[in-house]
Structure formats: structure tokens, C-alpha cells
Design a protein that fits this description.
Blueprint: E1 2-11, E2 14-24, E3 29-33, H1 40-47, E4 55-60, E5 63-64, H2 70-76, E6 78-81, H3 93-100, H4 107-120, H5 122-126, H6 137-149, E7 155-159, H7 167-182, E8 186-191, H8 194-199, E9 203-208, E10 211-217, H9 218-223, H10 225-231
Parallel strand pairs: 3-8, 3-9, 6-7, 7-8
Antiparallel strand pairs: 1-2, 1-4, 4-5, 9-10
Helix pairs in contact: 3-6, 4-6
The structure holds adenosine-5'-diphosphate (ADP) and magnesium ion (MG).
Length: 234
């Protein structure tokens, strides 16, 4: 579904990604693990068109999408729940979900999609008329994921969805990723909570200062002594 080939991304003079190559197959959950500053968010920003790579290819469903504008990529089927969630604090839960559905013309369809979001996250339905800024951190993350799903993505990108959340809420988020996968959506997940992420992934990549240092099945990554020491707290 998605292949990055020798991707190089810069912020001015800062070379943030060095020849990053990775693949996400249809139906998989793939995790990108790495320390703070490793380049995880930069990778997702390049895929979603928020950053244009200096060189390399981003091939989605057979076409090079590098440098295409973000709204075009949403229409092609790529959607992201960004780091820090990016919800509209002054809008209600329902209004935030409507924003995620701006490409869907038929409001009956929007309502059905909202119902699906509420089935995944019943807490959002209880708070549907509440302003998003008044939700708990976990509820805001649920809203960010539900909003990203409103555009019917084929590929859902999640940037640190469990960051700062209590263990029970993290569990809810990871269980929902299983459900999203079961419903047929492919997921590229960025996480510092590597232990939990690998339990819910098929494969993964380790990023170190902008380079892929290790890749393999989730089991191979979780079983590698260097990865265990550096990222799994062992
Ligand atoms: N807007 C920016 N301007 C300049 N440098 C940035 C910017 N965003 C990220 N960086 C740098 O790029 C590198 C990768 O950052 P990032 O992708 O955010 O890492 P991660 O998501 O893995 O924590 C870091 O060195 C970071 O300081
Ligand atoms: Mg990040």
C-alpha cells in the first residue's frame, strides 16, 4: 500500500530523515518506534503532505505522492490523528467529527460515520455536545482518532496516541486499534510506548536519529536484545 524509498527530509539546514525506507502492506498495523527527536513525526508529516521531502519517493497505491498537498492525500485515503491531537477546543465533539468529514457530501453518511465513531468510543457519544477543550486527555485522543476515521481512510496514521494517558485509557486506545484493523483499515502507528505498540502490531521499524536502524516482525523487534535495552526498558 505504502512504500517510502530513501526519503530525505530537512527543516532548513537540519537533516531530519536520512534515506528512510519502509513498507506498509494492506491490512497491517506497522509501528515506528524511536526516542524523542528520532524523526517519527517528521516521517508521518512527509506522508501526509505537510512536509515535502528533499529527495526520495513516497509511493501510495502505486503512485508517487511526495509533495502533493495534504487535502489531496485525504481524498486519496490517507488520514492522520496528529501528535498533540490537534482537535478544535472551542468546537463540540460533533462539530469536530463534522470537520473530519469535510469531503463527505451526504450528511446521512456523516451521521452513520459518527455512529461508527461512537460505537468505537461510547464516551464520545455521552459528551457529543460538549466542547472538545473540556474533555479529558484520553477523550481528546479518542476524538482525534474518530475524527481521522470520518474521511474513510485506507491508511490511518496515529502519532503517539497513548502519550500522557493513564494505563487503562492506553489499553482502550490499543484495543481500538485492533478493531480498526479488523474493520479493514491499515494503520501506521508511531509510539514511544513500544511494549504496548508491538503487542498490537504486525511489523515495526526502529528510527534512530533519522535513520532506520532495525526492522522486522513485531516479535523479532520485541525479542532483539539491543531494542529491548534501548526501547523496552530492560
Ligand atoms: N519544525 C521543526 N523545525 C526544525 N526542526 C524540527 C522541527 N520539527 C522537528 N524538528 C527536528 O527534527 C528531528 C525529528 O523530529 P521529530 O520528527 O519531531 O521527532 P519524533 O517525532 O521522533 O520525536 C529532531 O531533531 C527535531 O528537533
Ligand atoms: Mg513526534
Amino acid at each position: 500500500m505504502l512504500t517510502l524509498e530513501n526519503l530525505n527530509v530537512f527543516y532548513g539546514a537540519i537533516h531530519a530523515l536520512h534515506d528512510v525506507s519502509l513498507t506498509v502492506n494492506v491490512g497491517e498495523v506497522v509501528t515506528l518506534i524511536g526516542a524523542n527527536g528520532a524523526g517519527k513525526s517528521t516521517t508521518l508529516r512527509a506522508i501526509t503532505g505537510l512536509l515535502t521531502p528533499r529527495s526520495g519517493r513516497i509511493v501510495f497505491e502505486g503512485q508517487d505522492i511526495a509533495g502533493l498537498p495534504a487535502h489531496t492525500l485525504v481524498a486519496r485515503g490517507i488520514s492522520m490523528a496528529p501528535e498533540g491531537r490537534g482537535i478544535f477546543a472551542n468546537l463540540t465533539v460533533v462539530e469536530n467529527l463534522e470537520m473530519g468529514a469535510y469531503l463527505v457530501k451526504d450528511y446521512a453518511q456523516v451521521k452513520r460515520d459518527m455512529e461508527r465513531g461512537f460505537t468505537l468510543f461510547p464516551r464520545l457519544e455521552e459528551r457529543m455536545k460538549q466542547r472538545a477543550g473540556t474533555l479529558s486527555g484520553g477523550e481528546q485522543q479518542m476524538l482525534a482518532i474518530a475524527r481521522a476515521l470520518m474521511s474513510h481512510p485506507k491508511l490511518l496514521l496515529l502519532d503517539e496516541p497513548s502519550l500522557g494517558l493513564a494505563p487503562l485509557v492506553c489499553h482502550t486506545i490499543f484495543t481500538t486499534i485492533d478493531e480498526i484493523k479488523a474493520a479493514g483499515t491499515t494503520v501506521l502507528l508511531v509510539e514511544q510506548n513500544a511494549n504496548a505498540a508491538l503487542k498490537h502490531s504486525d511489523r515495526g521499524y526502529v528510527l534512530e536519529t533519522g535513520e532506520v536502524s532495525f526492522q522486522g516482525t513485531a516479535a523479532a523487534i520485541a525479542g532483539d536484545p539491543r531494542v529491548r535495552e534501548a526501547y523496552l526498558g530492560e
